[in-house]
Amino acid sequence: MATSLQPDKGAAVIDAPSGEPRDPGHRDPSGWRSRLYRIDLKATPYVYVAPFFLVFAAFGLFPLLYTGWLSLQKVELGGEAEWRGLDNYTRLAESDFFWNALANTFTIGVISTVPQLLMALGLAHLLNYRIRGRGFYRVAILAPYATSIAAAALVFAQLFNTDYGMINQLLGYVGIDPVNWETEKWPAQIAISTIVTWRWTGYNALIYLAAMQAVPNDLYEAAALDGASRFRQFISITIPSIKPTILFTIVVSTIGATQLFGEPLIFGGSLGIGGGSGNQYQTLSLLMYEKGWVTGALGQASAIAWVMLLLLLAIGLVQRLLSRSNAQKKNGAARS
Length: 336
Description:
Elements: E1 13-14, E2 21-22, H1 32-70, E3 73-74, E4 82-83, H2 87-93, H3 96-127, H4 134-140, H5 143-146, H6 149-159, H7 166-173, H8 185-212, H9 217-225, H10 230-241, H11 243-258, H12 262-267, H13 284-294, H14 298-335
Helix pairs in contact: 1-14, 2-14, 3-8, 3-11, 6-8, 11-14, 13-14
């Protein structure tokens, strides 16, 4: 006997949007509940993410646009803005102080980034092996990163003090004359780079270590069977496998070097804002601070800020192009 599949007309029907039973004879001609349900379903995710965009617009986008507007004005602290167009950028291009700060930013960035990443690679390679106390060493190398910039800069300023610093005392034991770490250009930049290297080497080492642990062990076992030493495995397997991570740390370290501010400011003491007595280690960030809050030229300071932004965008573009090139090479090797 066939069973009827039609619903019982006397049974209550559940309303989908609200979940409440309703009379089957009831009709919702406007369908407003269904529309509210669809609107709620589509709008709720945007409501959840709206606070982030509001905060970003207030504290990120607006300051960026306002700084760009100020860079086209002649603005003094407490004064009114006067339109100057690209005059601030033209004056920067003709300023020896700007080019000196740009060159210092580049040299300090190179001196601090290259040794930092090389040492981080070596430390990560050592910690990637099963050694006793490996967990303790992983925590210990992160301790400098947890130290504040002020504390680290003050300690290293004492270590590199020309008169009574420990560095000059150690150099004296091997017959080297005291070095003027604060007044000479290259010694001062090396001292500041040492602070940066000390703080960030462990941080980058942990990033490399995480990438190394994702490399399949089968590659190392096959290389060991072929007679490859650990150094050869490091060069031929580890570095190619973590190349995207290395590129990432290079870009991040370069961005950090472009924004270098706290270390040279505190290292120089009363002369830190000007980058020393002869601007020998003044960076772009220090020059921007000096223009904005010492001389009161907010328009020029804003122009420097936008030049720094353009430099960072250029660095990001280079990183993107290199990543795309590496991806194309991998795809080509996989197809072949």
